[in-house]
Design goal:
The chain has four helices and eleven strands; from the N terminus they run ββββββααββββααβ. It is α+β, with helices and mostly antiparallel strands and about 190 residues long.
């Protein structure tokens, strides 16, 4: 259980996350970041995962993003064809593929991907779509965070402050997420 927030403004993406993991009724505070920042050549990419921390580990230590050549393909072509195919292969190769219900998925996890001022969501069945709003949230505290972001969207305050307030709201009302928070940007 968690709260992950992605917020875009122009070409910049912020992601915020809590640090709690839940094992049954036990709260575990993680040192492991729920947000992963990487580079594809000279392009920054940022990931936030709600669900199993194994997906974060795979993204951080085992996933080698395919090269993105802006001269040969659009970002949509890259994300929907090249990146998603490579991510799916890496999940399978690292033993996290689940076909127990006859559906190919990656075990009840959701992934947010920020790249070049855009936010994509990848559901556990590998369904991927771009978020049309300036912000989105995943995880057990997402409805509270979304409400806080809606209230602050027209306020003249820094984006990292908006994300921080939304994290606080989520953790105040949802027992499955808690401080400390991390807020990163690309």
């Amino acid at each position: 259980m968690t709260i992950i927030i992605a917020y875009k403004e122009k070409d910049k993406i912020w992601m915020g996350a809590d640090s709690q993991c839940t094992d049954g009724g036990t709260a575990i505070h993680l040192k492991t970041e729920k947000i992963v920042k990487k580079k594809i050549e000279n392009i920054d990419i940022i990931y936030g995962v709600a669900g199993y921390t194994r997906v974060n580990n795979i993204l951080k230590y085992n996933f080698n993003e395919p090269q993105f050549d802006e001269n040969c393909q659009t970002l949509d072509d890259y994300m929907y064809k090249t990146w998603l195919k490579s991510f799916r292969k890496t999940i399978t190769k690292n033993g996290f593929k689940d076909t127990s219900e006859g559906i190919d998925n990656f075990n009840d996890s959701i992934l947010l991907v920020g790249i070049q001022g855009r936010i994509f969501r990848v559901d556990s069945n590998y369904q991927m779509y771009e978020i049309n709003e300036d912000y989105t949230c995943i995880g057990s505290g997402s409805s509270y965070a979304r409400g806080a972001l809606y209230v602050t969207k027209c306020m003249e305050i820094p984006i990292d402050t908006k994300v921080g307030l939304a994290l606080e709201a989520a953790c105040h009302y949802n027992i499955y997420c808690s401080e400390p928070f991390s807020i990163l940007s690309i």
